[in-house]
Write a structure and sequence with these properties.
Layout: E1 12-16, H1 21-35, E2 40-45, H2 54-59, E3 64-68, H3 92-99, H4 103-111, E4 117-123, H5 129-135, E5 139-144, H6 148-160, E6 173-175, E7 184-186, H7 192-198, H8 204-220, E8 223-226, H9 230-237, E9 248-251, H10 273-280, E10 288-292, H11 301-314, E11 318-321, H12 331-334, E12 339-342, H13 348-352, E13 357-362, H14 366-375, E14 379-381, H15 388-398, E15 402-404, H16 416-427, H17 432-448, H18 454-467
Parallel strand pairs: 1-2, 1-4, 2-3, 4-5, 5-8, 8-9, 10-11, 10-13, 11-12, 13-14, 14-15
Antiparallel strand pairs: 6-7
Helix pairs in contact: 3-8, 6-8, 11-16, 14-17
């Protein structure tokens, strides 16, 4: 009797996350989706970041393994600092430059593997992996933790080297004629690292490393994977974009799981999910505003004071996850019973899915954006930096599931009275239509990731493409 043929080994994919919470989490969620489809994945990490992989390694022990390298030192980074959590956006360029020093150790590791790497999936801040992929004969795939619009704008400015006239201020308008709808943004709304690069404020090697990062993504990659879906960003996905070098874009989002029962996604929560749910149970459906500005932003005392005054004057029930920030003295006592302040990490996914939460005041970071979209919760947009102004435009002007809370920007202090009015209007009758629209978009997001949906189809198609690389 003839022996059955030995099945071919699963394709081996190398994954390189960037060491920032908002970047690593969605890429690890994507790794889980690839693991369930039979791929074998080696995920690069460093000693201090290894714990982020623990849930993934426990869930897929046969498919996912960690490959740990020492974090490259840099004189501008404190010893032992391996993640941007708690750092300001001004330190991102240095992290990008320092992390790129892993290229040679990773290259040596890849060449020593008995089962060759067929594809390298790396965060868009790890553009140095694209020529690395070519060098080992693998396909280089850029993973974008941002939406398609934000990804195109970021690559466009570094590709075009847009300049601000010497006689203009931060309100100077930059147009993007090659992007559908020809969006435009003020200079102050572009990436801080780009503004600093153009102003010569970055150390020369760091600045060139940052720009080259984006150029490698455009020049060397096989294509982009974006954590988005067609019902949200179809106009930017229907045809190849010049600002993404006409590369293929697989839209596979939302990649995050629907639930986070433990409330520990991204770190240990400062309040238990069950305790927070019990507190929210006391409020009517859609009446509570959840306030959080992500893992990077820390409000200045003046900004925190303005927000606290607005929350107090608006009389709306709220949960405010302050992270590492401060709240004014006496504030919690004055809002006791209708306001809850969480100092540290909050179980955000669980909070947004509670029936009592009707609005989300957010910095418009893409992970938070998609968590709100998936939960059917409209947003009060308060962008700070990074891709957040691009996301706010998409949410307010196109998807119509957000209203602008204020002009935004790091250090911008809003008028407390105006902000209180925005809060009151949103939670009242004026916000009814937008709440309904948010529910409709949530249904579209759910359909996208199910069999027959656009994101499901793109993910399956990408996996088949990777299988053909062997």
């Amino acid at each position: 009797m003839e022996a059955a043929p030995t099945p071919a080994p699963a394709p081996h994919v190398l994954v390189v996350p960037f060491p920032a919470q908002g970047h690593a989490l969605p890429l690890l969620d994507f790794v889980a989706l690839l693991a369930t489809r039979g791929l074998r994945l080696s995920v690069v990490t460093t000693p201090a970041n290894l714990q982020l992989l623990s849930p993934l390694l426990a869930a897929y022990p046969a498919a996912v393994r960690a490959v740990t390298f020492l974090f490259p030192s840099h004189p501008a980074l404190p010893p032992g600092l391996e993640n941007t959590k708690g750092c300001g956006p001004e330190q991102f360029p240095t992290f990008i430059h320092a992390f790129a020093k892993l290229r040679e150790p990773i290259l040596a590791w890849a060449r020593a593997q008995p089962d060759p790497v067929v594809a390298v999936v790396a965060d868009f801040f790890c553009g140095w992996t694209q020529p690395l992929a070519r060098e080992i004969g693998a396909a280089g795939i850029v993973f974008s933790p941002s939406g398609a619009l934000g990804t195109a704008v970021m690559h466009s400015i570094f590709r075009r080297l847009v300049r601000r006239p010497a006689d203009s201020d931060d309100g100077f308008t930059v147009a993007f004629p090659a992007i559908p709808g020809e969006p435009s943004f003020q200079w102050r709304e572009l990436l801080m690292m780009y503004a600093n690069y153009m102003a010569g404020k970055l150390e020369e090697q760091v600045g060139e490393s940052v720009r080259q990062n984006f150029l490698w993504n455009l020049q060397e990659s096989w294509g982009f994977v974006s954590n988005t879906f067609k019902a949200l960003e179809g106009r930017y996905l229907d045809q190849p974009l010049e600002d993404l070098a006409l590369k293929r874009v697989w839209a596979v989002g939302p990649v995050a799981p629907d639930t986070d029962a433990a409330g520990a996604r991204g770190g240990e929560a400062a309040v238990g999910a069950a305790d927070l749910m019990a507190w929210l149970d006391a409020f009517p459906e859609g009446s509570v505003v959840y306030v959080c500005f992500g893992s990077q932003a820390v409000l200045t005392p003046a900004v925190a004071a303005a927000l606290a005054e607005a929350l107090e004057r608006s009389a709306v029930p709220f949960v405010w996850a302050v992270g590492g920030g401060v709240v004014p003295d006496g504030f919690e006592a004055r809002v006791a019973g209708r306001g809850l302040v969480v100092r540290g990490w909050a179980p955000q996914v669980a909070a947004l899915r509670h029936a009592a939460v009707g609005w989300f005041m957010t910095h418009c970071g893409w992970n938070s954006t998609l968590e709100a979209v998936a939960a059917g919760v409209p947003m009060l947009a308060w962008p700070m930096t990074g891709d957040q102004f691009f996301d706010a435009r998409l949410l307010v002007d196109e998807a119509r599931v957000a209203v602008r809370a204020c002009a935004g920007g790091i250090g911008f202090v809003p008028d407390a009275g105006e902000l209180a009015s925005v809060l009151a209007d949103a939670t009242g009758e004026k916000g009814r239509d937008m709440r309904a629209r948010a529910k409709e978009l949530a249904a579209e997001a759910a359909r996208a990731v199910k069999e027959g949906g656009s994101s499901y189809a793109d993910l399956e198609g990408l996996v088949q493409e990777i299988r053909r690389l062997r």
